[in-house]
Structure formats: structure tokens, C-alpha cells
Design brief:
Largest interface: A-C, 43 and 47 residues
Helix content of chain C: 55-70%
Number of helices of chain B: 10
Structural class of chain B: alpha/beta
CATH superfamily of chain B: P-loop containing nucleotide triphosphate hydrolases
Number of helices of chain C: 22
Strand order of the largest sheet of chain B: 6-7-8-3-9-10
Strand content of chain B: 15-25%
Shape of chain B: globular
CATH architecture of chain B: 3-Layer(aba) Sandwich
CATH class of chain B: Alpha Beta
Shape of chain C: elongated
CATH topology of chain B: Rossmann fold
Radius of gyration of chain B: 17 Å
Oligomer: heterotrimer
Strand content of chain C: 5-15%
Number of domains of chain C: 2
Number of domains of chain B: 1
Distance between the termini of chain C: 56 Å
Number of strands of chain C: 12
Structural class of chain C: alpha/beta
Strand order of the largest sheet of chain C: 8-9-10-5-11-12
């Protein structure tokens, strides 16, 4: 479920800024780190930390795009690739310097312990992650599909030039999308941070999963990214249950290469109707 | 009081008037429309609705009452017909929905499938959607760029028949067209551009009868 | 690109000599490391710098080289070095086929996935790689100390000189075209596929060699050498140094090795500084530090040489006749070309006119192979062109210019000159007079006449019908993908159907 949040944020930023943000995975880690730091310094309960992390990372999402993506829109895509990779390295090493390289644990959302439902023990924390994740995905879906703000965000990512011509304040909506992307990354980092700890070097891994989800689900497609992320999650869970984590990851990467070899445009192709 | 809703260079358009903007490919029609809308700057001042608009942004010009139907339609591909219309409105929610329903009635082609994603529409339906989208904010000046390109004759007729009805309500329409005969059949006046300058102007009847027109349209 | 100046040459030679003669072993080790990173970076420049493709597998290939050297050294000794080169280059050549076809963001993803697989193998295939502990104890079989330094730097200096020499000439121009205007490159006869393959494989070979050297210097090979951080280091070094400058990789590597020493008290902070510097360079000095130093030292910035039309146009050899027979092209059910037939001979100029959307540019695209035909035949004498890739068609004697300029800072006359200079027997010109002044139109007219006199065949699309009337032998008028008139300019212009089509009276006329 947390993958879904990461991929969702990734695709929102992709559509809003028109470029791959390689630092997205590090925004996830940053979210975890903020949760750790804020949890220690303020002692707030986890449910109160959640909005704090979201706000901080929302701002970080905007800053990231302002620094490494938006100034480079007129340049070839490789320029933004490199700039965001550099930004990712800045966040990673900034965290290493600031917090140290040792993994930390983010505060738990709920107390430990488990429910017993129909004889199956469910941990409280994983359950909380699934609930929070689902609520957020549903919330973002509602925002995009059912509100005027969401419609306008989608109109802006579909055709920026034309959106201006019908009177949409394009700049404001781009910033909003980027803030949302950052906030989702931050929350994902918080949620993952308790179970898998927070370490500065995890960013690349998060980014790669989101990238794969978006590439397989259809470049720029929001539901595609969600499906891709859930697919990756299930795939990894099942394969790793049978053969171990390493094999699961390896199989995933090989799968990606095979898909790209036979479908150079991704599993579902690029969305039709994008302006050339 | 001047009735001109638009003045730029040697071109003036009055309220309730349809003016054909003619010229071959590359004559500068799109550039002129984009300059009026504010997407590109021009050395000449642009006056909209009696005020100097040269320093205004695109958003401000749209708010003043300029609507735009771009070449190639450019509907928001992933949004439905209804969403395309709603997203393009600056009105408050209840008024917005009322206008959407109005458009769905006014354009039966769209009313038939309001929930269809725009990229699944036919060319004619997309063109109607682009027009309806531009009408959502009740513009007083409508800029249309090659709206008949690639459309079936019946759809072209449907589209062009609507323009005088819209103009009768006081809307000014500047219609950029390469198919001069079609445009002059609808417009009251026309101007012909060549290499970015107006080289010929007159009433629709005068222009249609001018032997120089064909050569100019071919790019002479 | 200019040849390597005396300043750089001196720096390149002085560093290793100084190290060998003066520096203590610790300093020599650092200079060796600089050479190793620079070798990897030099290979990376081929794909990333010259072709603009974001390859994220270079670090993994470096790791493959290191592991191969570590495994092979006990058996083969120094021969492990060439084996390491092959171990990186051969897999690169194998995977190159499918992944080099991918578009920018998918290419980056594929190479990243590839790198991740290598990393997983390094960590988990314990029987082969020793797992997380890595491999050690092989180092006595490999060159060490000053010998290693000399070997590394001899390879590097040779590499930099070859690189500078290769890319200063035609190869540099070709790479720029492939990077910035791949379509144009194809119409000039440049085989992008072969080029990318060569760049990728040679780049991999250099990464493998650098990896093997790194195994020799460190004595231990652990999964870290295949990690993403090596890749990021390589990428940032090349960007900071200059992604295309022959000395870019060396300058970047020098900083990457020296910065951590200078900032030793801050531990990991040097990587932070390095990343910030990369970001700054991308934004404000995309040419990198090496180019910046060039500018400071007063060297002229390299001006890509402007193509000009040769003084004397030689009569072109090759095919005599370009024939279109019933050519059909559909876009989503619409016939963009609905059975177009005409022929162009040598020494003939044919003007293609028609209203917007009538299929003129589409026709040029299918002739040049940029779009596939859906029916009919296009032949150059007896050779069918329908199913050939664009660069092959170009080599058979078909040149092309474009409506929209593809290279930054390019001009229409340069675009035209480039096409003419290929010596193509037939030229397809798409709106060469668009936006031109009267004087330029005059020059274009005389150039077209010279082309005719030199026996070239020309198909020209333009909106300046007066110009076409002056220079063309025949005009072909298209409307909705069909030829509606063909003949002498005056005759076609007077044709009532042509006049009707330009006035938009198609329905009435049809």
C-alpha cells in the first residue's frame, strides 16, 4: 500500500512538472526522517505527526521541483534526470550528515499487538498502514476525479498551454500538484519507516519501484501507476514468501527488462491523445 | 463610445461582427491570434474592449472576455466531455453546472455522450467540445483558428451555421481560415494576411470576387 | 570540438610523471584512483555525453570488471585485465539490442534494472562472489604500486587522445546530430543504431577495465562496487568535469578523489558538496568545468562548423529517376495520401503545393522513410524504398531538409547546405523559404537553379508560389492526399480545381 502512495506521488509530480523526479525516493526517506526527528523532539502522538510530515514534505516537494526540474524544462530530458539525481544525492548525504547513517525507527502509528480475525492474526501496525494508505488513495482519487480543483489539475497536466487559454491559473495548480506529490511521499516514508526503518540510502530503491510502477502502468496514467504499484507489491510478497527477498527483486527487474524488450512503450503504452 | 472589442495593428473588430482572417499556410494567422490572447508579445499595442491590454497576462485577457478555439482542437484528452467544460469555467459551482447543461443542450453531439473521455471523441465532436469549452466563460470576443480543418462537410456546415447565431448575441468572432470561400460565406468582412501583414481587406462580397485572393491564399 | 590544447596535454602527462617521481605511495595511490575513475568516466562520456542517453548501468559494469578481475587473477595473473574488459563488453553487446531502442525514460529504467540485477547477484550469489564479504586475496597476481599507476595512466592518456581526435571531426558532428536531431541524422545517412551500439559497448569495455584496475588497487572486491553510489559518482564526475570535453572525465575524477581528502574532517560532507556542485553545473554551466577552464584560459569556445554549400556542385552519381506509384498512407483511418503518383528526373525541380493538411509533408516523410507507406511503391531506379530505414534511403542518394529547424542555433540555409553536401542525387526540401527575407529568397532561387544545372532532382514544398513558379519545371498540386493537378507552373496555377482548392471550395469541385 505504501508503494501505491510513492507511485501516486511520483506520477503526480511527473504530470505536473513534465519530468521524472529521481529525488522522489529520497523525499520518501526524508519523510521518514522528519517523522523520526519530530517524534523525538516534540513527543507528539503519531496521528498528529502525520499532518506535520505531510506539510513539511509538501513544501519540500515544491522546493525540489523549483530547484531541479522547473528551471530546466526547456532543456533535453537528460538535464532534469541528472539534476534530480544530484538532488537525490544531496538529500541522501544531507541526511547522513545530519542524522547519521544508522537506520532509525519511525514512530508507530498505533500500539503494537494484533487483532485476531477469524483465526488469522493481523498486526495492528500493518493494518494501520493499509487503512491510512487506502484512505489517502481514495482521498486523492476523490480530489482528482470529483472536485473542480482536481479537474483543473488534470487539465493542466494534459495541456498546459490550453489550460491557460481557458483561464486556469496554471502556475498555482502545478505547485499544488507538486505539494501533493511531496506530501504523499512524506506520508509513505512515515508509514514505511516504522516497519522497515529509515536509512538515508533507501531512496534509490523507493524511486526504482515507483519508476517501474509508472512505466508498467502507462506513462503518466494515475490509475496505471496505482495498479502497477499494487502489482509490484503482490508480486514481491508472493515471490519472496516462496523464494526469498533477493529472488523477488531480481525476478521483478528481469520482468521489467523482458517487458521493455517486447513492449518498448511500456505495458499499456503511452496514453493516447497526448499532444506531440 | 467605440464599439471595437479588438484593435491590433490595422485590424479592428466590433461587437456582434464576424471577421474572417485569411491567408495561406505560414501567413501569420495563428501568430496574430496568439498575440491577441497574450501568448506572444508584439511590437504593436493590443486593445481589448476599449482598453490597452498589451501588458495583461493570458489569464487577465481571458477574464476580460476573450475565448479561444485553437487549431487542432486540443481538448483535455483524459477528461470527459463534462469535465472539459467544468474545468474551463471560472464561475461558482452552481452557475458552472448550469452552463455545462446549457452547452450539452446547445451541442447535441456532446449531449449524447457527456461522460466520454475526450480522446475517444470523433474529430467533429472534439471540435464542438473545443468551441463549447471556449463559450463556458461567455466570451465577448471569440478567436477561432482553422476550426473546419479535417472535418466532414456536414459538421463544417453545422459549425459555421452556429457562428451568426452566436454573433447575434453581441459576441465578436475572429475566424482564421485557410478555406477562404467557407469563411467569407459566414463572415461580414475579411482581411488577408501575407507574411504577417494585412495585404487586402474588404467586405466578404468584395473579397470573394477579388481575383487576387486565390493567389494570395496559395501563398503568393 | 577543438583538438586537445597544449595546456591539457601537459596537465595530462605531468600528473602521472609527477606522481611517479615525487609523491609518496599514498599520493601515488590517489593519482591511480583518479586515473581509474577517469577511465570509467571516459567510457561514460561516449553514451551519456555524446549520445545524450542516460545510461545508469555504467557503475554496474565497473563492478562486473572488478569481480571478473578478482576471480580470474589467481588463474590468469595480469591477463585478468583483458578478460575483465570482455566480461563487461560482451554482456553489454548482448543486451544492447533491445535496450538501445528504448526512449529516454525507458532507457534509464532498463539500465537501472540491469544495474540492480548485477548488484543483487553480487550480494546474494555467495558461492561466486563471496556475498557481502566480497573477495580478497587475489591482489598478488595483479600489477600494483607504480606499475599499476603507469598502466592506468597509459590507458587513460591513450583513451583521451583517441577520444579528442575522433570527436573533433565528422564523428563529433554526427554525434551532435544523433543527440539533438535524430531524424535529421537519419536523413543524412547516419546509422544511429550502429553508433549507439559502438558507444555503449566501448563505454562498457572502459568501465570493465576501470573496474579491474580498481580491484587491483583496493585488494578487496565487495558488492559496494556494483552499487548505485558508484554510478552516481561516475555521473556527477562527468557532469562536473564536462560531459563531452575530452578532459571532462579527468577533471571530474580529480575532484572526486581530492575533495574527500580536503574535506576529510567533515566525513561524508564531501559527497554533499559534490552533489550540490553537480546541480549548480547542470543549471548554470552545462558544459562542465573543463569547458569553463577553457574559456578562462581564453580558448575560443568550439564553434560547430557551419555547413556551407560547396562552391562547385559536382554532378551527382547514382539513381536517375525517383518514381512514386499509387502511394497510400493512412493515419487512424484517414487517408493522408490516397494514391499519389508522379516521377522526378535528374535535373528537374518539382514544386509540391496544396492547402494545409493536403499531405505535402507526409509525402516527403514517406519518401524519406520517416513514415511507413501503407500501399503503393516508391522506387529509385530499380530499388524499392518502401521498407528501408531512413539512413539507408539517405545513402542511396536522397537528401532532405525540414520545416522546423532541429538543431539549436541552426538556420535554414545551413540545413539546406547540409543536405546538399551529402551529394544526394535527389533532394526533398520542406519549406526552405519559410520566414526568409527577399534577399534570402533570391539566394535560394539561384541555389535551386545551380542544383538543376548540376543534375540534381529536387522536390520542393513551399508556400511562396511566386518563387515556385519562377524555379520549378513542374508543379504538383495535392488536395486531401490526392494529386488534383500536375504540369507547368502557369498551367497548374490557372487550373480551376487548384484555385478552388486553395479557396476551400473542395466540396464544390470534387
Amino acid at each position: 500500500m505504501a508503494y501505491a502512495l510513492v507511485a501516486l506521488g511520483f506520477v503526480l509530480a511527473l504530470n505536473a512538472a513534465g519530468a521524472v523526479n529521481f529525488a522522489h525516493g529520497d523525499l520518501v526517506v526524508l519523510g521518514g526522517a522528519v517523522a523520526v526527528a519530530a517524534g523525538q523532539s516534540t513527543g507528539l502522538a503519531a496521528p498528529l505527526l502525520l499532518p506535520l510530515v505531510a506539510l513539511t514534505l509538501g513544501a519540500a516537494g515544491i522546493v525540489a521541483a523549483r530547484v531541479a526540474i522547473l528551471p530546466l524544462v526547456a532543456r533535453p530530458p537528460e538535464a532534469t534526470f541528472v539534476a534530480t539525481i544530484a538532488l537525490a544525492a544531496i538529500i541522501e548525504h544531507g541526511l547522513t550528515v545530519g542524522l547519521g547513517a544508522a537506520p532509525r525507527t519511525a514512530p508507530a502509528l498505533t500500539g503494537s499487538g494484533s487483532f485476531d480475525i477469524a483465526g488469522v492474526a493481523l498486526g495492528r501496525q500493518p493494518l494501520a498502514i493499509v487503512v491510512v494508505g487506502s484512505v489517502l488513495v481514495a482521498g486523492v482519487w476523490f480530489l482528482l476525479e470529483r472536485t473542480q480543483t482536481g479537474r483543473r489539475m488534470r487539465a493542466v497536466s494534459s495541456d498546459r498551454h490550453m489550460a491557460r487559454a481557458v483561464g486556469i491559473p496554471v502556475g498555482r495548480y502545478i505547485m499544488l500538484s507538486l505539494a501533493l506529490a511531496g506530501a504523499l511521499a512524506g506520508i509513505a516514508g512515515f508509514l514505511l519507516g516504522h516497519q522497515f526503518l529509515v536509512a538515508p540510502t533507501q531512496g534509490a530503491g523507493h524511486m526504482l519501484k515507483a519508476y517501474i510502477a509508472v512505466a508498467l502502468g502507462g506513462w503518466g496514467s494515475v490509475p496505471g501507476a496505482l495498479l502497477g504499484a499494487l502489482g509490484i507489491g503482490f508480486f514481491e510478497t508472493f515471490v519472496s514468501a516462496g523464494f526469498g527477498d533477493a529472488w523477488a527483486s531480481a525476478a521483478l527487474y528481469v520482468g521489467v527488462l523482458v517487458v521493455l524488450a517486447f513492449r518498448p512503450q511500456g505495458l499499456f503504452g503511452e496514453p493516447v491523445g497526448r499532444r506531440a | 463610445m467605440s464599439a471595437a472589442v479588438l484593435e491590433i495593428g490595422g485590424l479592428a473588430v466590433n461587437a456582434g461582427e464576424i471577421v474572417a482572417l485569411l491567408g495561406g499556410n505560414g501567413a501569420g494567422k495563428t501568430s496574430l491570434l496568439e498575440a491577441i490572447l497574450g501568448f506572444r508579445s508584439t511590437p504593436e499595442p493590443v486593445s481589448l474592449f476599449g482598453q490597452d491590454a498589451s501588458a495583461l497576462t493570458v489569464e487577465q485577457r481571458v477574464a476580460l472576455g476573450v475565448g479561444y478555439v485553437p487549431e487542432g482542437r486540443r481538448v483535455f484528452a483524459g477528461l470527459t466531455v463534462r469535465e472539459n467544460l467544468e474545468a474551463s469555467s471560472t464561475a461558482p459551482a452552481s452557475e458552472r453546472r448550469r452552463r455545462v447543461e446549457e452547452m450539452l443542450v446547445l451541442f447535441p453531439m456532446l449531449g449524447e455522450r457527456p461522460e466520454a473521455r475526450a480522446w475517444l471523441l470523433s474529430g467533429g465532436q472534439q471540435q464542438m467540445l473545443a468551441l463549447a469549452r471556449a463559450l463556458m466563460n461567455r466570451p465577448r470576443l471569440l478567436l477561432m483558428d482553422e476550426p473546419t480543418l479535417g472535418l466532414a462537410p456536414l459538421v463544417v456546415a453545422d459549425l459555421l451555421r452556429r457562428l451568426p447565431q452566436m454573433a447575434a448575441g453581441g459576441m465578436a468572432i475572429l475566424l482564421a481560415e485557410q478555406r477562404a470561400a467557407l469563411a467569407l460565406g459566414t463572415a461580414s468582412r475579411g482581411v488577408v494576411l501575407s507574411r504577417g501583414r494585412i495585404v487586402l481587406a474588404g467586405s466578404a462580397a468584395e473579397l470573394a470576387a477579388d481575383p487576387a485572393l486565390a493567389d494570395l491564399m496559395a501563398g503568393g | 570540438m577543438r583538438p586537445l590544447g597544449a595546456f591539457w596535454l601537459a596537465a595530462l602527462l605531468a600528473l602521472p610523471i609527477f606522481a611517479l617521481a615525487v609523491l609518496p605511495p599514498f599520493g601515488q595511490r590517489m593519482v591511480t584512483l583518479v586515473g581509474i575513475y577517469a577511465l570509467m568516466g571516459l567510457g561514460y562520456q561516449l553514451v551519456f555525453g555524446q549520445l545524450g542517453a542516460l545510461n545508469l548501468a555504467q557503475g554496474a559494469l565497473f563492478g562486473v570488471g572488478a569481480y571478473t578481475a578478482a576471480l580470474a587473477a589467481p588463474m590468469l595473473g595480469a591477463l585478468a585485465l583483458p578478460v575483465a574488459i570482455l566480461a563487461a563488453a560482451i554482456p553489454a553487446a548482448v543486451v544492447a539490442g533491445p535496450i538501445l531502442r528504448l526512449q529516454s525514460h525507458y532507457f534509464a529504467l532498463a539500465t537501472l534494472a540491469l544495474a540492480s540485477i548485477v548488484n543483487l547477484v553480487a550480494v546474494h550469489a555467495e558461492s561466486l562472489t563471496g556475498g557481502a564479504n566480497g573477495i580478497s586475496g587475489f591482489v598478488s597476481s595483479l600489477p600494483r604500486g607504480p606499475v599499476l599507476l603507469a598502466m592506468v595512466w597509459i590507458c587513460l592518456i591513450a583513451g583521451v587522445l583517441i577520444y579528442a581526435q575522433l570527436f573533433r571531426g565528422r564523428l563529433g558532428d554526427e554525434a551532435r546530430l544523433l543527440r539533438e536531431a535524430p531524424l535529421m541524422a537519419a536523413t543524412l545517412g547516419i546509422d544511429g543504431g550502429r553508433w549507439r551500439l559502438a558507444g555503449f559497448v566501448v563505454g562498457a569495455a572502459l568501465a570493465g577495465l576501470a573496474g579491474a584496475f580498481s580491484a587491483a588497487i583496493s585488494g578487496v572486491v565487495s558488492p559496494d562496487v556494483t552499487g548505485f553510489s558508484v554510478m552516481v559518482l561516475c555521473l556527477t564526475s562527468v557532469v562536473i568535469g564536462g560531459s563531452r570535453h575530452p578532459m571532462g572525465a579527468v577533471v571530474g575524477a580529480l575532484l572526486a578523489v581530492c575533495l574527500p581528502e580536503m574535506l576529510r574532517d567533515f566525513q561524508d560532507a564531501w559527497l554533499l558538496v559534490y552533489a550540490v556542485a553537480t546541480l549548480a553545473i547542470v543549471r548554470w554551466a552545462p558544459g562542465g568545468l573543463a569547458e569553463w577552464i577553457d574559456r578562462l584560459s581564453g580558448a575560443r569556445s568550439p564553434v560547430p562548423h557551419k555547413p556551407v554549400v560547396p562552391e562547385r556542385l559536382l554532378p551527382a552519381t547514382g539513381a536517375q529517376r525517383l518514381v512514386l506509384d499509387n502511394v497510400v498512407k493512412r493515419f487512424g483511418g484517414v487517408d493522408a495520401l490516397a494514391g499519389v503518383s508522379f516521377a522526378v528526373g535528374r535535373g528537374e525541380i518539382v514544386g509540391l503545393i496544396g492547402p494545409n493538411g493536403s499531405g505535402k509533408t507526409t509525402l516527403l516523410n514517406v519518401i524519406g522513410g520517416l513514415d511507413h507507406v501503407d500501399g503503393g511503391a516508391i522506387t529509385l531506379d530499380d530499388t524499392h524504398l518502401e521498407h528501408l530505414p531512413p539512413h539507408v534511403i539517405a545513402r542511396k542518394g536522397l537528401g532532405r531538409t525540414f520545416q522546423t529547424l532541429m538543431l539549436e542555433g541552426d538556420t535554414r540555409s545551413a540545413d539546406l547546405a547540409r543536405a546538399v553536401s551529402t551529394g544526394a542525387a535527389f533532394l526533398l526540401l520542406d519549406e526552405p523559404a519559410a520566414g526568409a527575407t527577399d534577399r534570402e529568397r533570391g539566394q535560394l532561387t539561384s541555389l535551386l537553379r545551380r542544383l538543376r544545372d548540376a543534375g540534381r532532382g529536387v522536390v520542393i514544398v513551399d508556400h511562396d508560389i511566386e518563387l515556385l513558379t519562377r524555379v520549378c519545371d513542374r508543379l504538383v498540386c495535392l488536395d486531401r492526399g490526392k494529386v488534383i493537378a500536375i504540369g507547368g507552373p502557369a498551367e497548374v496555377r490557372a487550373d480551376p480545381r487548384v484555385r478552388a482548392s486553395f479557396l476551400g471550395l473542395v466540396e464544390a469541385a470534387a
